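> example.struct
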């Protein structure tokens, strides 16, 4: 039995789907059972728990062989990761597959969203549990959330001229399913990227080609980006965290392309062009708004 935290999220959904398709028994950690994904059949067993509530985690972890530990973008996420690992250590010592983000264990730029990943890695190393880390780059799915602001014809981000090897979150979920259902991954950190690193100018050009109109990349400043995010209603923690993330990208720290997804899945990673083509109707149909992105689920 494999426990998936974040099971209803961007990575969790394709992960649960991939595990189910492999015939694995899945326990999906959810905060409530209202509105569960319709595709979950009787091989997916929802369990109600909250990452902030240690007491709720013991039954969720009881009898499992492995846990996919994904924490949300939340100021409490570091403690949540430690709480799950402590509960796992008491519950039969399952394998822990920790989802982090690119650069975990080696990053130089500080990004507050990633503190939870570093804390989780330190804690799982100290726990004595068998562990593996998946460290994906920014998700291609972020561009769906940016669609409304693209209606102005501009992609404005404080990312300079650096390239980013964005990855499709479905590939992350499918790679996670491979790691969770096969052996030989203990103590490994897998950096998961898309098949190419593109500058945001190149990305704007590709989006424009799909939408059939010009999209111009404008390299804005961190201060302006932060002010715009605050104006749009983001809280201070998330707005500043996003600007830190953009800074990490601008420093060129997210440009490496790895072969981990082709190696794990036996096929190429999904590309931005394929993603944009697949989602062109949704991108075109998005109503205009002046709101900039409002969470980490936005390009950075
Ligand atoms: N976005 C990116 O580009 C990117 C790139 C690399 C790494 N990451 C990392 O990926 C993680 C986010 O993954 P994601 O995008 O798949 O997440 P997501 O779509 O935001 O989903 C978050 C999941 O966490 C659940 N959750 C939130 N608070 C919870 C709590 N207190 N107890 C139990 N479950 C809770 C949510 O459940 P509900 O349905 O109940 O809300 C949901 O299933 C973060 O660690 C982030 O740093 C993100």
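> example.seq
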């Amino acid at each position: 039995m494999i426990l998936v935290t974040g099971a209803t999220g961007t990575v969790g959904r394709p992960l649960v789907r991939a595990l189910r398709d492999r015939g694995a028994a899945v326990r999906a950690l959810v905060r409530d059972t209202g509105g569960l994904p319709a595709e979950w059949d009787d091989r997916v067993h929802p369990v109600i728990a909250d990452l902030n509530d240690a007491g709720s985690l013991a039954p969720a972890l009881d009898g499992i062989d492995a846990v996919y530990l994904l924490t949300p973008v939340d100021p409490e996420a570091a403690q949540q990761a430690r709480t799950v690992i402590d509960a796992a250590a008491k519950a039969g010592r399952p394998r822990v597959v920790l989802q982090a983000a690119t650069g975990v264990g080696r990053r130089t730029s500080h990004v507050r969203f990633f503190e939870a990943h570093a804390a989780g890695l330190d804690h799982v190393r100290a726990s004595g549990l068998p562990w593996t880390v998946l460290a994906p780059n920014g998700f291609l799915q972020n561009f769906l959330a940016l669609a409304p602001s693209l209606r102005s014809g501009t992609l404005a981000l404080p990312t300079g001229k650096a390239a980013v090897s964005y990855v499709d979150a479905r590939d992350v979920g499918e790679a996670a399913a491979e790691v969770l259902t096969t052996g030989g991954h203990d103590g490994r950190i897998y950096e998961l990227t898309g098949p190419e690193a593109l500058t945001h100018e190149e990305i704007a050009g590709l989006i424009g080609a799909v939408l059939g109109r010009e999209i111009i990349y404008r390299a804005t400043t961190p201060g302006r980006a932060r002010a715009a995010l605050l104006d749009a209603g983001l809280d201070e923690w998330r707005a500043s965290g996003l600007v830190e993330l953009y800074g990490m990208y601008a420093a060129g720290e997210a440009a490496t392309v790895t072969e981990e997804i082709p190696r794990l899945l036996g096929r190429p990673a999904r590309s931005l062009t394929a993603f944009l083509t697949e989602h062109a109707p949704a991108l075109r149909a998005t109503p205009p708004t002046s709101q900039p992105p409002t969470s980490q689920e936005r390009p950075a």
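> remarks
The CA atoms of residues 90 and 120 lie 16 Å apart.
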